[in-house]
Design a protein that fits this description.
It is a single chain. This protein is an alpha/beta fold and 458 residues long. It folds into two domains: 345 residues, TIM Barrel; 76 residues, no CATH class. Helices cover 34% and strands 17% of the residues. It is built from twelve helices and 19 strands. The strands form five sheets. The chain has an eight-stranded parallel β-barrel with strand order 1-2-3-5-8-9-10-12, surrounded by seven helices. Strand 8, helix 7 and strand 9 form a beta-alpha-beta unit. The radius of gyration is 23 Å and the shape is globular.
């Protein structure tokens, strides 16, 4: 599974402070995720309101994060495509892709805020058609060749868009789907990655919709295990379960209170009322329905295991900083999730506590002896997959930045030669040294080790 941060500011001046200070704190927060081991940052577009309005242009925020990171993917979740000229979107995100070394993911959707459509002069009923035609234009623009397009909404004659993205044939495409089975089917049939939001309905209801996506994926002749599907959660992790629940009980109503205000800016008797997601809300109910990640690391791991089984998710993008919560609370949650949740969800044979159990996660001695260790050199990625029975861990020393790790281990293929890697092959968090995939930023020489090869202290 891949684990990402989701940026949708729900701004409260009394707790978040001036815009400038808030933005700098937010960017620092997103950038810090790289050293903690997260895989990506996703930025969400909104306008004209404290609900998300601080990020009217995701490409600008992602370009700031790109310049301070080396590895994390940079995604839009989502660009509200009907509100834009698609050529402009293609140009902006191609720039970010080139500047970041090919790390952009394009997530698109039609949005749900009527006031945005009204203000931009776009009929909301055109949203779906504009989204699909806009995507068609973007993919043509990213081909690197001159193209002509004459559709229902957009017309271009023999234009060539600069720059071309670094990724070939183009950055990965993700479609946000919510309520329409037809949208899920379209995404699967066309081979696009899938984005959903878990807080909107119980997990079982989402699973019914996702089945349309998976069936269309298979019916189109694709490998049933090759799709990518990430769902969005609000996340609060704490060693103290009750403190986590108190945080959520305050932050979720504040988050959805702003959402309700933003959708209420547009007044029309013809607009059907948007369902209120807080009807019957209690923290316990939302946890039981799989709509939020809240509690101890054990609690969160159990919900994620359930989501992986029920939905088939391959990734999670989490909002850790939302609803006017104190920044320190978000930082603690982000760090604890990285140290005690990500490793356990990434280890293929990790023992997971029963859902709802209150016991602490099993220690390394109960897990590591059952795993095998192998190194691979795959492009610029290296994979640490556990320890063979009886193996000893090589010498581990913190390097200058205090976050990354260095391992010096003798190579089985060439005894006495060194394998040195300054990437985060794993994080212990002081407690649970379990593995996960990392991009290597300082790879010298990693060879595939024989299965079961013994490791000795360097």
């Amino acid at each position: 599974m891949e684990f990402s941060l989701f940026a949708l500011p729900t701004y409260y001046k009394e707790t978040d402070g001036p815009h400038g200070a808030y933005f700098r704190r937010l960017v620092d927060f997103l950038v810090s995720a790289e050293d903690l081991g997260y895989d990506a940052v996703w930025a969400n577009e909104h306008h004209f309101h404290p609900y998300g309005g601080l990020i009217p242009c995701p490409a600008v925020l992602l370009s700031a994060v790109a310049q301070r990171t080396k590895r994390m993917r940079l995604g839009t979740s989502v660009v509200v495509l009907p509100l834009h000229n698609p050529i402009e979107v293609a140009e902006q995100l191609a720039m970010v892709d080139v500047m970041s070394g090919g790390r952009v993911d394009l997530g698109i959707g039609r949005g749900f805020v009527p006031f945005d459509y009204q203000t931009m002069g776009i009929p909301m009923q055109e949203g779906q058609e504009r989204t699909l035609e806009g995507l068609e234009v973007i993919l043509k623009a990213w081909s690197g060749a001159p193209f002509t397009h004459h559709g229902k909404y957009f017309h271009y004659d023999n234009i060539e868009v600069w720059p071309r993205p670094e990724q070939r044939p183009h950055p990965p495409v993700w479609l946000a789907c919510s309520t329409s089975p037809e949208s899920f089917t379209f995404a699967g049939r066309n081979g696009y990655n899938l984005l959903t939001v878990s807080s909107l309905r119980p997990m079982g209801k989402i699973a019914e919709l996702v089945q349309h996506y998976r069936q269309a994926w298979v019916d189109s002749g694709r490998d049933p295990h090759s799709f990518k599907y990430a769902t969005h959660y609000q996340i609060v992790v704490d060693e103290d379960r009750e403190r986590a629940r108190r945080t959520v009980a305050e932050a979720i109503p504040r988050y959805f209170g702003l959402l309700d205000e933003s959708t209420g800016l547009f007044k029309s008797t013809n607009q059907p009322p948007r369902p209120d997601p807080l009807v019957g809300f209690t923290v316990e109910k939302w946890i039981d329905e799989g709509r939020i990640l809240c509690g101890t690391p054990d609690d969160v791991v159990a919900t994620l295991q359930w989501a992986r089984s029920e939905l088939g998710i391959t990734g999670v993008d989490g909002a850790f900083y939302f609803g006017g919560m104190p920044f320190e609370t978000a930082q603690r949650s982000l760090r604890l999730f990285a140290e005690e949740v990500i490793p356990r969800m990434s280890a293929p044979l990790a023992t997971v506590a029963k859902r709802g159990a209150g016991s602490r996660p099993p220690g390394p001695t109960s897990i590591l002896p059952n795993l095998e260790r192998r190194f691979y050199n795959v492009g610029r990625e290296c994979c640490f997959k556990g320890l063979a029975n009886g193996s000893e861990v090589g010498d581990e020393r913190r390097i200058a930045d205090g976050n990354r790790r260095r391992r010096d281990v003798p190579s089985a293929a060439a005894p006495g030669s060194g394998i040195r890697c300054t990437c985060q092959l794993y994080r212990t968090g002081g407690r649970l040294p379990l593995p996960r995939m990392r991009v290597c930023t300082g790879l010298a020489d990693i060879r595939e080790r024989p299965r079961g090869g013994r490791l000795r202290r360097a």
